[in-house]
Amino acid sequence: MSELVTGEAVALELRPAKLPSRALAVLLDLVVAMVVYLVVTLLLALATAGLDEAAQMAMAVASFLLLLVGVPIAVETLSHGRSLGKLAFGLRVVRDDGGPIRFRHALVRGAVGVVEILMTFGVVACIASLVSARGRRLGDVFAGTLVVRERVPAGRSPFVPPPPPWLAGQFSGLDLSAVPDALWLAVRQYLTRMGQLDPQVGAAMAERLASDLAACTGTPAPYGVPPGAYLAAVVHERQAREARRAFGGATGPGVAPSGQAPGAGWSAGPPAAPATLPGAQVAPLPASPSAPGASAPVEAPQQPPAERPSTGFAPPA
Predict the structure, then answer these.
(1) Does pTM surpass 0.85?
(2) Could you give the CA distance from residue 214 to residue 211 in angstroms, rounded to a whole number?
(3) pLDDT in tens for each of the 317 residues of the chain?
(4) Is the dihedral of CA 47, 53, 55, 61 positive or negative?
(5) Best CA proximity match to 231, nearest among 216, 219, 214, 218
């Protein structure tokens, strides 16, 4: 398995194709191409029987270049790296960064393939594929391409453990723009496999990754925070930022702000008494009817209660 990191810090796991599958795919392509070439050559020989020898040689060279070189280049360009043989064996030609190939990649592979496959009967291509760690022939090296397997059994994605609840949202102001992709990949791999490591080895690795991450961000790790928890919190903050960037950070009714629990900031108790308006008179307390000489209370004009501004959120009944 070959891991590549794209510009979006996404780890791509590519499985390079080995020599047996590539040889079978090339063999199938050559058999089909040779059959078509022989049929076309026979038809051209019958059609150009009245021409001179130079014209017949020119037609033969043109058919060779068109059918054995031009057609494979066109097929790989239009199919984005999947010829008939590669499609049959589940292979595909991609760039070194995992992207689809273009015409220039197919042109370089086809031009070099004439020498290392057709003229040397595949001996040079086999030697180069055996020497290369990812099974690349010379055409792949010069074109910057890689033949990978598409039919790979799907596996479960590794689970990144969440940070402790008391660390959630503590690194919202941290600058993560200077952290390289290789360090993100190393931190992610450690978090997904820290349960399989030896405790001492895992602790040393966590301290080294935490120090590297703190050096890239320019902010030291908080005192007393375990390195593993610090790494998980920073990765969680980065994932939260990516989610906000992808889906937006709009808030609405029932959506709590970042770092605040739903329902925080309001009380479920009885509503407070409405505030009196400026200039309003407050009625005196009525006297006890049992007191001698008590007079009837004078009713003050009732003022309408002040309306509370609408917040768009209704507390539960």
Answers:
(1) no
(2) 5
(3) 444 544 444 445 567 888 898 999 999 999 999 999 899 888 888 887 777 788 888 888 888 888 888 899 999 999 988 899 999 998 999 888 777 899 999 999 999 998 999 888 889 999 999 998 888 999 999 999 989 888 655 555 566 777 888 877 778 888 888 888 888 888 888 888 887 778 888 888 888 998 898 888 888 888 888 888 888 888 888 888 888 877 765 444 334 444 443 333 333 344 444 444 444 444 444 444 444 444 444 454 455 444 444 433 344 44
(4) positive
(5) 214
Question: Which residue bears the tokens 């690795």?
Answer: 205
For residue 267, is it left (φ>0), alpha (ψ between -120 and 50) or beta? beta
198 exposure class (CB count in 10 Å sphere: 0-12, 13-18, 19+): exposed
DSSP the chain: -EEEE-TTSPEEEE-B--HHHHHHHHHHHHHHHHHHHHHHHHHHHHHTTTS-HHHHHHHHHHHHHIIIIIHHHHHHHHTTS--HHHHHTTEEEEETTSPBP-HHHHHHHHHHHIIIIIITTTHHHHHHHHHSTT---HHHHHHTEEEEES-----PPPPPPPPPGGGTTTTTT---TT--HHHHHHHHHHHHHGGGS-HHHHHHHHHHHHHHHHHHHTSPPPTT--HHHHHHHHHHHHHHHHHHHHH-----TT-PPTTS-TTTT---SPPPPPPPPTTPPPPPPPPPTTSTTPPPPPPPPPPPPPPPPP-S-----
| Count of positions (residues) in the chain | 317
- The string of DSSP letters for 72-110 reads HHHHHHHTTS--HHHHHTTEEEEETTSPBP-HHHHHHHH
